[in-house]
Every structure is written in structure tokens, then in C-alpha cells.
DNA sequence: CAGTGAATGGAGCGATCGCTACAGAGACGC
DNA sequence: GCGTCTCTGTAGCGATCGCTCCATTCACTG
């Protein structure tokens, strides 16, 4: 199968190969479209190796989701540290640009996530639950970031608006990804600028209005 | 299997039963998660009946997509006729409300469409191609509608902006659906109002700016 | 009342599914 | 050199997959 002599004790490398292959396959074909046979074909490893590293298909895909998230975080901005830009509007533009670029450069996580998110069987796959968890974590990280950006106003109100903005933020990212993918003719950077300004204006409106 | 005597010559009814069942299944489990066995189980009809009405699984799902689109159109607004609201902002709000409500009331089409849109195998299913076609048609219908709403400005510019707005419109719908589905705590009507106003403001900006 | 044709019922084909059993290969400590 | 542990290779299990064959049923026509 492979010409090069495969040395042993290299489990970690094989595990990674399997995760990468599964990610590529699952991001293109979804949960049910991903088969162990496709993974073994892509990696050159036998099914027994796959099952040595992962308990079953369900766990394989759950681990793949987390793997893809880790990969995505390498490209995407971290929400913890702020860039130190004085103008809030500018900072938001910067964030959205980096996030949208991450989606374009390494789209596997977002693709796979959306596919899992849309799934709705009675027996929920672990990968889906894991995705929702990751999404919720991301959302609260974004919320904290927004609370810092919206420096003024009373804390309760600011926190509420920041929560809305975080949801809104994710919503925009989803729409952005699908829109750019499904409909030709978008100029992404230009679009993101406009959306960023709109988003910020929305936050200001929410901050000011009553209840 | 069925107690009631099933009269013959009722192919059309069976065909509908199959399409409805397939739609429910496919909207929850996606293309590969949909199996003929699940359809026969849900309808009480044998596989031979399914294959009498549809050439194969690929065609069954393609027909299901179009069926779901027809169903959706029963709930969703038609883009051809305008409601006759004087204020453009108001009219846009009305449209978006009706569209978003259609997505909530009868979400199968949108769900299935998004799932098919995300698919990306080398051998593209007919259902996916059919979805992209339907989406493109819808987009141009929305574009024409926008051209009428944006009454002023020179025609070329207006057409260009209307094209952008149509893409933007679909993008918002996608994000809206996923956002409401994935993240708890949205108040849909309120959100749609805000988005509608933002969208209209965006259109005015695009109309005014150069090139 | 025979003949026709739309549609169903049921059995089952070969292929692929997820997964397992088990022997073997090779890097280790002793 | 010898056992040990990690990981691979092969073969194949039972279940399900998409799909087909073909007899049967029944509303029709003549």
C-alpha cells in the first residue's frame, strides 16, 4: 500500500493523518457521507488503525470537529486579547475582517460545523453536541470582547447588548460564509467593511434605546 | 401493512406521500442520511413503489427539493406582486417579516437547501444543482423587486445595487435561519425589524456612492 | 368477462456499511 | 535474545445500502 517503510511507534502521526483526512471528507460530505472506507483510502491506513485510535465513527467525527476547531483557531483571531485600536468602529472592522478571512482560508471548521448544526436526528451525534458547545463558548468569548468595546453605558445594559451582538456576530458569519459560497459575485472585503459599520451602528442603537 | 383497503389508480397520492416523507427525512438527516428504507417505513409503501415513481434516489431527492420549494412558496411571499406600501422602508420590513416567518413556519425547504448547498462531493447530486438553480431564480426575482423599490437613481446604478441587495437579502435569510436555530434567545420579529432598516440604509448608501 | 395497465407486495441481489478478531511487524527494556 | 507493547495488515462478520425481479391486485375498457 505504501512503499516507504512505515516505522512503528508513530501513533500520534497516524492519528493526525486520520483526523486531517476525516476533516477533509466530512467537510465535503457531511456526517453520513463520511465512511471509514473513505478515510482508510485517503490515509493508506487499515480500518483497524482507525479503530485503534478512535472508539467508533461517532467519536472519530467528534474528535475531528474539535481538531478542525483547533486548526481554525490557528488562523482566526483570539477573542481574549484586544489589538489596541482606539476607534471602536475600526476595531470591529479589523475583527470582522480577520474572522471572515479565517473562514475563507480555512473553511473546514465552519463548513463542518454548519453541517452538524443543521443535522436533526433523534439520536444526536456526539460531534453535533460538541459543535454546539464550541459555538456557545465562542459566543461568550465574543460577548466579553463586545463588552470591552462598548466601554460606556451602565454594565447591565452593556452586557445585554453585548450578548445580542455576539449572537448577531455569529449570524453574520454564517450568512457571510453561505452567501459567498452560494452566490457568485461578492467582493468580500468591501462587504465586510459595510457590515462591520452596520453592526456597530446597531450596537449603538441598542445601547441607547430603553429596555 | 395497511388495514384500510388501498384502492388502485391512486399513484398521485402515493407519490405525494413519498415526497412528503422524503422531505421530512432529508431535512433532518441530509442527502446521505436519507435512505429508501426510511422512506418506505414512513410511508408504509414498499421500495418497488418508490422506484415506480422515481428512477433512483438521486432523482427522488431532486424532486423532493422542488416539492419543498413549491410548499415553501405557498407560505412565502411572491416577489412578483408588490403590496402597494408607499414607504419603501415599510415595504422592506413587511417583505422580510413575511419571508422570515415563512422560514419558521415551513423550514424544510430552507433546511434542505442549506444542507444541499453545503455538500461538495466530486459527483454532484442532482438535488444540489437543482437547489442552486432555484436559489439563483429566487435571487433574480428579489433583484427585480428591489429595482422597483429603489425607484430613483439612474437605471444602471439601480440595477447594480438591486443585484447586491438580492445577494445581501439571501445572505441575511441564511444567517437568520441558522442564528435562530443555533443560538437561543432571539426575538425574531424585533430582530427582523432592525435588520430590515439596516438593509434599507445599506441600499441607500450603495445608491449614493460612486462606482 | 377476458384483457390491459397502473401500482403494490415481497423476496432478495451485490455492494458497501460500521466494526472486530487476530496474527504479525517492529521499536523498546531487560 | 526475549518478551512486551504499540500499531498495522488482512480477512471477514452481520446489517444495511440502493435497487431489481416478478407475481399479484384492482380499476378500467371492450
UniProtKB/TrEMBL annotation, chains A, B:
HTH tetR-type domain boundaries: 12-72
Keywords: DNA-binding, Transcription, Transcription regulation
Keyword match DNA-binding: yes
Listed Gene3D superfamilies: Tetracycline Repressor, domain 2
UniProt superkingdom: Bacteria
InterPro entries noted in UniProt: Homeodomain-like_sf, HTH-type_TetR-like_transc_reg, HTH_TetR
The entry's DNA-binding region: 35-54
Cross-referenced Pfam families: TetR_N
Protein name: TetR/AcrR family transcriptional regulator
Protein species of origin: Actinocorallia libanotica
